[in-house]
Amino acid sequence: MIIRSETEADHDAIRAAITAAFGQGLEADLVDGLRADGDVVLSLVAAEGQGVSGHALFSLMDAPFRALGLGPVTVLPERQRSGVGSALIRTGIEEARAQGWEAIFVLGEPDYYRRFGFDAALAARFDCAYASPYLMALALRADLPAGGHVVYAPAFARLPQ
Q: What's the number of domains the chain is made of?
């Protein structure tokens, strides 16, 4: 397995993987919207053989510091629980850190994302439309502001409620 940045040639395979993993096209439409809006910062694929077995997207957020939103993270159903998702997330975190990003937010299952250092208590310090126990943050620097307002990229607001 090779983790690399997506190319335009990967878009159909990414859409197919997302649809297979989530059982619907809503998350794939979100990825397309983020791309169309120019809000994608990192879009990583797990390449195996001639195909794509997973994908992780990091998009711009409006925050009082340099922040990214992680999601969606996708792994083909037959490759789930094999380390593909973890490799994508860890690679993305390291690339974000190397690029000088200061925090990453994620909406997801706390038991899964805690293993990467994401923390609901840190996210709770910030006002966000998605505030809940499923909103978590990972600080990539030690001195994040104590609060403020964080907003996901506009494509998230266009999702059906």
A: 1
